[in-house]
Amino acid sequence: MMNTKGKIKIEDKVNEDMKLLDSFDSLFVARRGFVVKMPEKGASVVACLSGGMDSVANIAMLMKDYGLKVYPFFINRGQSNYAYEKKSADFFNSFFKKTFSELYNDYLEIKVMTPGEEYKDMLRDAKRMVDPLPLRHNVSYPARNPIMFLTGMEYAYSLKANGVDVKTIFASYVSSDSSYHCGLTNTRLMNILMCQIMNDWDWQFISVPTEREFGNFFDKDVYVKWGYDNNIPLHFSRTCVKGFDIECGDCPTCWDRRRGYKEASVNDPTSYKYDMSSEYPTYYDHEKEEKTQK
Ligand SMILES: [Zn+2]
């Protein structure tokens, strides 16, 4: 395990509920004797490939450091930057097939519209009404990740039809992710849901960077550094949520990406359309401002 503890503390995060998390963990211990554990080397697992830097680095790490056979899934969920995320997914699909030929399997593209197109505009408006800062509007739709990963769970289960037994799903949430659906509390809750609806408590839902069972709570910079050290060309991943052919460089997700490189002390080879605005130099500053506005 990486055992990299970052500067962000889980106890300080608004999207975590430590009491709830403790009780979820106790539930797992009671049910199966442990909370979560990494599958044995050579085991098959399912992981989300969004085309973003975290998911790409995560899949590479699962193969290189843990020797897991990865079955990635890519969700066509109606995202506005679909073509660019798909381009990244295709690039890394080829790269991983060459680099990890024994462990990597082609990703499956799955079409699941979320949020539903019928109310997407209304949902955006509703979020604007309750959130005075534009930061989060494009960052999270509340049911997006649960829907994506329940889909990933069904995909994992379906692989049984091909003789592949998978009961572990990987996300790649990092310590600075601020949405509720990215927190460890939510990850556990999702894991409980998976076990309950599959009627099988062997199912696991894990995000390595935020998995406190592994002693981890690290951020994007660890993925950046790891990718750099392991020759994974992470700069070909797609972070930006905007519709430009290259990264815009100045949306919150681009700030995160630039911050990741900066904090990792790795030269950022990404081509950006714009310089980063000096108004909000870091994601953390945004969070502080949001708190003071409440
Ligand atoms: Zn951007």
How would you describe this structure to a colleague?
This protein is α/β, with parallel strands linked by helices and 294 residues long. The chain has one domain: HUPs (Rossmann fold), CATH 3.40.50. Helix content is 41%, strand content 9%. It is built from nine helices and five strands, in the order H-E-H-E-H-E-H-H-E-H-E-H-H-H. It has helices at 18-32, 53-64, 82-99, 120-130, 144-158, 184-198, 220-229, 252-264, 283-293; strands at 44-48, 69-76, 108-111, 168-171, 204-207. The chain has a five-stranded parallel beta sheet with strand order 3-2-1-4-5, sandwiched between helices. Helix 3 links the parallel strand 2 and strand 3 (108-111). The radius of gyration is 18 Å and the shape is globular. The structure holds zinc ion. The site of zinc ion has 7 residues, from helix 8.
Which characteristics define this entry?
binds zinc ion, 41% helix, 294 residues, 9 helices, Rossmann fold, alpha/beta
